[in-house]
């Protein structure tokens, strides 16, 4: 059955839970095809991050200009930096029938939900808060101050996980990845079934 539109999948979760790791694992699988929406940010690149691959790294002036021009589907300020989703890529991808994945924090996810309630909203959780802290510390990319701020943010974000359609535990990367794959496959089946039923019930006799 030909799909009219692709799924818009939003993946959120506290900093350090493993969103990037799980996303990379998902993109390496052959039985699922997703397109990644590269976000724009004003934060400094971390070691090894590449402009146009991990993020579009831009100045605050440029970012504010794009906000004014309505070229972001959503945007948010997170721990002192702007983050946002360029709207054109997302629109073009789903219109062409492909699924697109946005890895964004909760304020942005709630904005997407307002304009795109038919999206699939997934919240990734750690097995515990102490494991979350160990993962952030273990990554070694943040100072103690930033780690503290991100742990505070994590608690606030976890309070909002009820607003998501699915909550997925990232105990092991492979398990989390399989859970997300199962969600995407079942969402496809559900939507195809509804579309088929709708067609059969609305066709003129
Ligand atoms: N609203 C919004 N959040 C984003 C976007 N891109 C990334 N984020 C989120 O911003 C937060 C900080 O990202 P980052 O500085 O890369 O650190 P991370 O938490 O280690 O991934 C994370 O929760 C990301 O998911 C975006 O385009 N919009
Ligand atoms: N399931 C997991 N078990 C143990 N460590 C993990 C797991 N998932 C991710 N990590 C590690 O946790 C750290 C943070 O992961 P990352 O993908 O950068 O998180 P996020 O993108 O959510 O900020 C990384 O060092 C990563 O290797």
From TrEMBL:
PROSITE patterns xref list: GUANYLATE_KINASE_1, GUANYLATE_KINASE_2
Signal peptide bounds: none
Class of this enzyme: transferase
Enzymatic reactions: GMP + ATP = GDP + ADP
A GO molecular function held by the record: ATP binding
Domain Guanylate kinase-like, residue spans: 6-185
InterPro entries according to UniProt: GK/Ca_channel_bsu (IPR008145), Guanylate_kin-like_dom (IPR008144), Guanylate_kinase (IPR017665), Guanylate_kinase_CS (IPR020590), P-loop_NTPase (IPR027417)
Compartment(s) where it occurs, according to its Swiss-Prot or TrEMBL record: Cytoplasm
Residues that hold ATP according to the record: 13-20
Keyword Iron-sulfur annotated: no
Major localisation: cytoplasm
Keywords: ATP-binding, Cytoplasm, Kinase, Nucleotide-binding, Transferase
Pfam families: Guanylate_kin
Enzyme Commission designation: 2.7.4.8
Entry-linked CDD domains: GMPK (cd00071)
GO cellular component terms listed in the entry, alphabetical order: cytosol
Matches recorded under NCBIfam families: guanyl_kin
UniProt-listed PANTHER family: GUANYLATE KINASE, GUANYLATE KINASE-RELATED
UniProt family annotation: Belongs to the guanylate kinase family.
Its biological purpose: Essential for recycling GMP and indirectly, cGMP.
Protein name (record): Guanylate kinase
UniProt organism field: Priestia taiwanensis
Organism placement in taxonomy: Bacteria, Bacillati, Bacillota, Bacilli, Bacillales
């Amino acid at each position: 059955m030909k799909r009219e539109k692709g799924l818009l999948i939003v993946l959120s979760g506290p900093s350090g839970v493993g969103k990037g790791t799980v996303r990379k694992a998902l993109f390496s699988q052959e039985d699922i095809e997703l397109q990644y929406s590269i976000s724009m940010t004003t934060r400094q690149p971390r070691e090894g991050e590449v402009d146009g691959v991990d993020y579009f790294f831009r100045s605050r002036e440029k970012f504010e200009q794009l906000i004014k021009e309505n070229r972001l589907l959503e945007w948010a300020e997170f721990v002192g930096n702007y983050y946002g989703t360029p709207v054109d890529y997302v629109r073009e991808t789903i219109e062409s029938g492909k699924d697109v994945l946005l890895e964004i924090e909760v304020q942005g996810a709630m904005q997407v939900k307002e304009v795109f309630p038919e999206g699939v909203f997934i919240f990734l959780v750690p097995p515990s808060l102490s494991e979350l802290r160990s993962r952030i510390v273990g990554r070694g990319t943040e100072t103690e101050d930033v780690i503290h701020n991100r742990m505070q943010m994590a608690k606030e974000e976890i309070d909002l996980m009820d607003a998501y359609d699915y909550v997925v535990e990232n105990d092991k990367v492979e398990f989390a990845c399989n859970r997300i794959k199962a969600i995407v496959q079942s969402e496809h089946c559900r939507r195809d079934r509804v579309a088929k039923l709708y067609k059969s019930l609305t066709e003129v006799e």
